[in-house]
Amino acid sequence: MKSSYKKLKIGLILTCSLVTFSCKKALEEYNPSTVTVDLAYNNKTGYEGLINACYTDMYFFYGKVDYIGPSEMGTDLWVSYSGQDSGLTNYDATLIPSYGTLKTIWGGWYSCINLCNTAIYYAPSVQGYATPADVNAKVAEAYFMRAWAYFGLVEQFGGVVLKTTPTSQAGIDITPVRSSETAFYDQIISDLQFACANLPMIQPLKGRIARKAAFAMLAKVCLQRTRLGDVQKYAAMALTAAKELIDNQAKYNCALYQSDATASGFAKVFDGKNNKNNTEFLWAQTIDLTGLNPDGFNRGRTRQYFLPDLTGKGVDWGTNGTGVLYGRANAKQYKPSNYLLTSIFEPNQNTPDTRFANTFTYKYYASAAKTITAAIATAYQKDPSVVGKTIPTSTAFYSGPDYFLAAGTTFEGEINTVNDAALSIFTPNWTIPVATKKTLPYMVADPSDLFDPATGNYKVASSFPNDVDYSGIFPALKKFSSKMYVYTNQDWMGDFPIIRLGEVYLIAAEAALLNNNDQFTAAQYVNVIRARAAITSRQSEMVVLPGQMTVRYILNERARELAGEHTRWYDLKRTGFLTKAYLQATNPTVAVNFDAAKHTVRPIPQSFLDAIVNAKDFGTNGY
Question: Which range is least confidently modeled, 43-47, 174-178, 501-505, 616-620?
Fold first, then answer.
């Protein structure tokens, strides 16, 4: 049996070299009474603790700022708020190997991988399970999580270090070698195939990976693999995996939400009442409401990074930048592009597609009563008829049964929202006639107010002296902000979908096109998703024809369905649209600095390069 000191030392050195945290103090605190790793993981109790640990790192990706930039920014959908996160959003000179969020995701994925490798290594010797099948069902969770981590690494950083043996067994590797991207995908697909064959259909504990998640991830990974060649082969594999779920939803205990006369199925996906037992979430980061999470109640901050300026101009109209409903606006970093608001989503008040209305907050209500003064009317070019009108407060003590917050908490949006009586700021994605806007007793900022028609970019106030300065006002992403799970003005305790059934339909559609240009099948899958985006009386308006099916059309449909769900950068990379020409046509601000020679991967973190002796073999991915 190997000594506990050797196990501890090797594990800590792994953390130094791949996860890149400080290790000196930890090594000095060696405890000779520590139980050996062999003894800890050869029994069922210890082994299941190890499997639990494989999930830990994912909690620092979803609902956190560190993964928003790498997964969504630098695309056609978003722009930087006042230069925030500009390296990933605008590809500027700050995107270098020391970029903080890249170190975070690199470290998180490699930490997860080493835990998974450890679990896979000890699976053959673990005692306490009734049958080998029971062991396989458990270790399949580690195979899945390893595939998840390697998928992120290879897409973000390219062919970096591929390891399948835990550092405690392989020893210290200070001269690692790169593996090819195809080798990464071979390992990822193999891991997911094992998970598909061995995971249980239903897990007894919420948040555990079940077989449906493995088929969904296999479909997603195989589709992404098509960018490296063998397109028909991997498209066919993606379609087969997707169809397994689509055709057997009852078997896998999943289902799309269906529309009715008053609510679309899409609206129901993000309805707080469905969040904790969502039939469409195939794999989700589940959040414990009592705080038993890796970072306690420090959860779900996504919403605050997409907020407009409710502390400045909003205050003129009665909003509050630290409200519970909207979040804490001083952390705002991102805003939607003109292309997303007015081309991806139909800029029409009467559209049958409910996805804009259920993806964005575009109505903000007053947190305190506000009387419109002559000065405000003049500043915002309002008609004198609005002077003296009062926007009533929408804030009241919560007293209903439907929210996570305890009764008695002050909450915006509780009263005076019927017929928009307390409406304070209105940011539709359609244009309203100027004469009409002047008479409305609240701030209105539509696309004609926000965007320069010549460039498509957000207006710069100094360049438009005759216009009202609406910089900082825009619709805010609201998918992960149902007030049912608001905990504080920062933290949201809802579950986060990582992959859901709606995406699987779109994977199947794209795979059908890539496999044999089957536009008929692609349209069938797309129309299911489009239909459930409308209420029942308008579903016929959402039908598209097979002849409309192209990869570009499905890319747009993915934006309508999945905006803000950590997919867009991967989507552009897979489909060949992560190019300067495409970005110039859709989101010119992002295109300015884009360089295809380096910006399809990220800089390898400097902390990793500093921990190895052959850094020259890795370089910096061109940065």
Answer: 616-620
334 three-state secondary structure: strand
Can you tell me the distance from the alpha carbon of 272 to that of 256, in angstroms, rounded to the nearest whole number? 16
Which two three-digit tokens encode residue 102?
């890249």
Q: Is the pLDDT of residue 569 over 60?
A: yes
pLDDT digits (tens, 9 = 90+) for 146-204: 999 999 999 999 999 999 999 999 888 999 999 999 999 999 999 999 999 999 999 99
Residue 469, sorted as left (phi over 0), alpha (psi -120 to 50) or beta, turns out to be beta
Q: Alpha-carbon torsion 561, 548, 255, 243, what sign?
A: negative
Q: How far is CA 310 from the centre of its chain?
A: 24
Structure tokens at 618: 């890795």
pLDDT of residue 325: 85
Where exactly are the structural domains of the chain?
Answer: 1-182+599-623, 302-485
**Any idea what DSSP says for residue 564?**
T
Distance CA 37, CA 1 (A): 9
Distance CA(150)–CA(183), nearest Å, equals: 11
Instruction: Report domain 1-182+599-623's class.
Output: mainly alpha
The C-alpha atoms of residue 276 and residue 286 are separated, in whole angstroms, by 8
Distances (CA, A) of 91 to 25, 28, 427, 460, 591: 37, 41, 28, 20, 8
In this prediction the pTM is: 0.94
| CB of 287 closer than 8 Å to CB of 296 | no
| pLDDT tens for each residue of 330-386 | 789 999 999 999 999 999 999 999 999 999 999 999 999 999 999 999 999 999 999
Q: Do 331 and 305 meet the contact criterion of CB atoms below 8 Å apart?
A: yes
Q: Tell me whether residue 369 is exposed, middle or buried, using C-beta atoms within 10 angstroms of its C-beta: 0 to 12, 13 to 18, 19 or more.
A: middle
Distance CA(377)–CA(442), nearest Å, equals: 10
Q: Please state, in angstroms and rounded to a whole number, the distance separating the CA atoms of residues 292 and 246.
A: 34
Residues in the chain: 623
Q: Could you tell me if 485 and 493 are in contact, meaning their C-beta atoms sit under 8 angstroms apart?
A: yes
Is the four-CA dihedral 82, 88, 93, 99 of positive or negative sign? positive
